[in-house]
């Protein structure tokens, strides 16, 4: 992959490199809700509400469970998303691989998930060769987007300056946080809950904003 115009791409994983309709992230959420209910002795409804609150407050439910209940994040992920089989939900996207290759910018995946899970998703999508590497929650020192510490760790990993980075994510909070950190932030969602400029409906439209 050749470098062009000094731009560096930080691209989110779930619901960004594949359409939200795939259902993979929702499957992980269901596993997490069930595990939280069993672990904390809650009803499914209570666990769902807790998971959503922690996600909104801490960026990920896992970080919230660690902060409020002392449960290591690695244990949380091992009992939800790392149990998933991504090929059950995803399919290869050679058109995305070709598009990223044509862009010619160095690119990293930047995800709040673990490296193990991210690797499985990229293999299911056929995109593992398209990126310089994965900036996972471990790489970000167990911080999660949209925390400033997460963007700082991600930027340090790339070795780029903030003004060189184009950040792409499906979550408006993560996009807003990246923008406030000084990155060029692009929202990738077919039906965003809040307006944002620039916004693309699918990662295949990325060349249009570059």
Reconstruct the topology from this structure.
Elements: E1 8-11, H1 24-40, H2 44-58, H3 61-69, H4 73-78, H5 94-103, E2 107-110, H6 115-125, E3 133-135, H7 148-158, E4 165-169, H8 172-181, E5 184-188, E6 199-200, H9 206-209
Parallel strand pairs: 1-2, 1-4, 2-3, 4-5, 5-6
Helix pairs in contact: 1-2, 2-3
What does this entry look like structurally?
The protein has a 6-stranded parallel β-sheet, with helices on both faces. It folds into 2 domains: 8-19 and 89-209, Rossmann fold; 24-83, DNA polymerase, domain 1. Helix content is 44%, strand content 11%. It has helices spanning 24-40, 44-58, 61-69, 73-78, 94-103, 115-125, 148-158, 172-181, 206-209, and strands at 8-11, 107-110, 133-135, 165-169, 184-188, 199-200. It contains 9 helices and 6 strands; from the N terminus they run E-H-H-H-H-H-E-H-E-H-E-H-E-E-H. Helix 1 crosses helix 2 (44-58) and helix 2 (44-58) packs across helix 3 (61-69). The two termini are 17 Å apart. The protein is α/β, with parallel strands linked by helices and 210 residues long.
**DSSP strand content:** 5-15%
Instruction: Tell me, rounded to a whole number, the average pLDDT.
Output: 96
Q: Could you tell me how far the N terminus lies from the C terminus, measured between alpha carbons in angstroms?
A: 17 Å
CATH architecture of the largest domain: 3-Layer(aba) Sandwich
């Amino acid at each position: 992959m050749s470098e062009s115009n000094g731009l560096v791409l930080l691209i989110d994983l779930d619901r960004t490199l594949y359409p939200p309709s795939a259902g993979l992230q929702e499957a992980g959420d269901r596993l997490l809700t069930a595990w939280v209910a069993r672990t904390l002795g809650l009803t499914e409804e209570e666990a769902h509400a807790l998971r959503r609150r922690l996600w909104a407050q801490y960026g990920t439910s896992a970080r919230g469970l660690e902060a409020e209940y002392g449960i290591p994040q690695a244990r949380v992920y091992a009992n939800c998303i790392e149990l998933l089989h991504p090929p059950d939900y995803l399919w290869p996207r050679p058109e995305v691989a070709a598009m990223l290759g044509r862009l010619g910018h160095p690119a990293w995946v930047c995800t709040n998930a673990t490296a193990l899970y991210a690797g499985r998703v990229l293999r299911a999508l056929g995109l593992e060769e398209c990126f310089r590497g994965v900036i996972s929650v471990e790489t970000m020192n167990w911080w999660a987007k949209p925390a400033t510490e997460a963007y700082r760790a991600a930027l340090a990993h790339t070795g780029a300056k903030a003004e060189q980075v184009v950040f792409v994510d499906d979550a408006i909070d993560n996009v807003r946080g990246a923008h406030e950190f000084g990155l060029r932030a692009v929202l990738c969602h077919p039906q965003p809950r809040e307006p944002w400029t620039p916004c693309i409906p699918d990662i295949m439209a990325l060349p249009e904003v570059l």
